[in-house]
């Protein structure tokens, strides 16, 4: 579960944000909708503990992030949060499979090849596992990115514009996959987007 309270952040005195509180329990989904520039990625990065708020707090799995050191924040993030970034940020020198195994490596866990292959099967990219990520189409990369976010069985999945570059068919596929995968591990799923096609897919919504 993830929640936030009174989050404020500024990049400069001219660029200040005050975000509405959010709450997303285990197995629940939340859509955060807003037009370009409203601060969706900023909010997602605050929720992902990648940015530190000026004030307010983020709670993950009932733990407040405020009192934690940078090292503890990094560990909390790596163990509890699966992030699907707007751009996937793969390690280009590594294969698709090795990119999937990186999250295990980052939390000193055994690299779970069985799980990586299982996710590739569920998400339909088994034949690409030994390729480099740049050899995949955008839609395929998006699915690899979803699989990577699930490798450590996170409590919370945060997705930044997961469908914005996809056609209607793939938009539907990706959102159903995200819902099904997060439900199957009992995670909270938070999606930020300006993609109006997702409006009818989520009952809980926050507008920025
Ligand atoms: N590192 C930064 N330094 C200064 N300003 C920034 C920085 N990152 C974002 N901004 C500004 O903050 C505002 C919000 O950016 P953000 O990326 O959070 O918006 P967004 O709603 O996700 O937009 P989009 O839908 O276009 O991705 C924008 O005006 C952007 O220019």
UniProtKB/TrEMBL annotation:
PROSITE patterns for this protein: ABC_TRANSPORTER_1, ABC_TRANSPORTER_2
SMART domains recorded: AAA
UniProt-recorded Gene Ontology molecular function terms: ATP binding; ATP hydrolysis activity; transmembrane transporter activity
Source species, domain of life: Bacteria
GO CC terms, sorted: plasma membrane
Keywords: ATP-binding, Nucleotide-binding
Sequence ranges assigned to domain ABC transporter in this UniProt record: 2-208
Entry-linked InterPro entries: AAA+_ATPase, ABC_transporter-like_ATP-bd, ABC_transporter-like_CS, ABC_transpr_LolD-like, P-loop_NTPase
Entry protein name: ATP-binding cassette domain-containing protein
Lineage, uppermost ranks: Bacteria, Pseudomonadati, Bacteroidota, Cytophagia, Cytophagales
């Amino acid at each position: 579960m993830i929640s936030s309270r009174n989050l404020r952040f500024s990049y400069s005195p001219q660029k200040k944000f005050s975000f509405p509180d959010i709450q997303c329990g285990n197995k629940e989904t939340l859509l955060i909708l807003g037009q370009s520039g409203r601060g969706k990625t900023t909010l997602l990065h605050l929720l992902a503990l990648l940015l530190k708020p000026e004030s307010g707090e983020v709670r993950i799995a009932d733990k407040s992030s405020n009192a934690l050191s940078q090292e503890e924040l990094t560990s909390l993030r790596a163990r509890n949060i699966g992030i699907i970034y707007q751009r996937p940020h793969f390690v280009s020198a590594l294969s698709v499979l090795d990119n999937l195994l990186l999250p295990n490596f980052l939390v000193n866990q055994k690299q779970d090849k069985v799980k990586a292959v299982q996710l590739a099967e569920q998400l339909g990219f088994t034949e690409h596992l030994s390729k480099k990520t740049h050899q995949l189409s955008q839609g395929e990369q998006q699915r690899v990115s979803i699989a990577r976010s699930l490798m450590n069985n996170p409590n919370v999945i945060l997705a930044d514009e997961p469908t914005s570059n996809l056609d209607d068919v793939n938009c539907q596929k990706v959102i159903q996959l995200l819902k099904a995968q997060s439900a199957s591990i009992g995670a909270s799923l938070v999606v930020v987007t300006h993609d109006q096609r997702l409006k009818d897919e989520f009952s809980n919504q926050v507008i920025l």
